[in-house]
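Following up on my earlier message about SN-glycerol-3-phosphate. Here are the inputs again, as you asked, copied directly from the submission form:
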Amino acid sequence: MIALNLKTYEQSITKPLLFADIASEVVSETGLRIILCPPMPYLKESAERFSDVFAQHVDPVPAGAYTGSIPAELLKAIKVKGSLLNHSEKRIPMGDIKIAIEKLHANGLESLICSATTNEAREIAPVSPTYIAVEPPELIGSGISVSTAQPEIVMNSVKAVLEINPKVRVLCGAGISNKNDVKKALELGAQGVLLSSAFVKAKDPKEFLSEIASVF
Ligand code: G3P
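Thanks, got it. Here's what our run produced:
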């Protein structure tokens, strides 16, 4: 599977629905699972156009008096399927990760939790998130792929997580820029990739996504 984090890049702010339509087209052409994480204010509209939308963050609070928060109940109400959590650009404490995963799952939503290291992946695995995505922060947005620059973190994390909790699916991300990076990630045992800048900033995002989807 491929998870696309649109972050808050200028392109994601100005044409978020274009990315939802592209993801939708590539899913119909390939049958591959593609998750799209648009900027928060575009979640509802994106989820109306594309069936596999995740939030970029969720708060570990219930529906109620929590000004400015995004509870899992809210995501469910607007037909979002799950949430990314603990991204290097939006880190949260381990206790909050656990509460947020439980709340997502209690609402029938999926969880995609980022970990910066193999040790962190080890800590998260027992909580049974749907996915763990290993992303070394220093390679994020660098154009240098984790699968080439740090293959050991992918292999070690896959091994560690599967030993602790074989139900969890492991992805990798950071610097994934082309077909070869994706191919290597799969060879290292990852079940998919999480990526952002190479897709959002591609000259032709549809062509880019179709190309990396062809690896699976
Ligand atoms: O969430 C994905 C991300 O952090 C990786 O970013 O730009 O290196 O693909 P990028």
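One observation from looking it over: The mean pLDDT is 97. Hope that helps, and feel free to reply on this thread.
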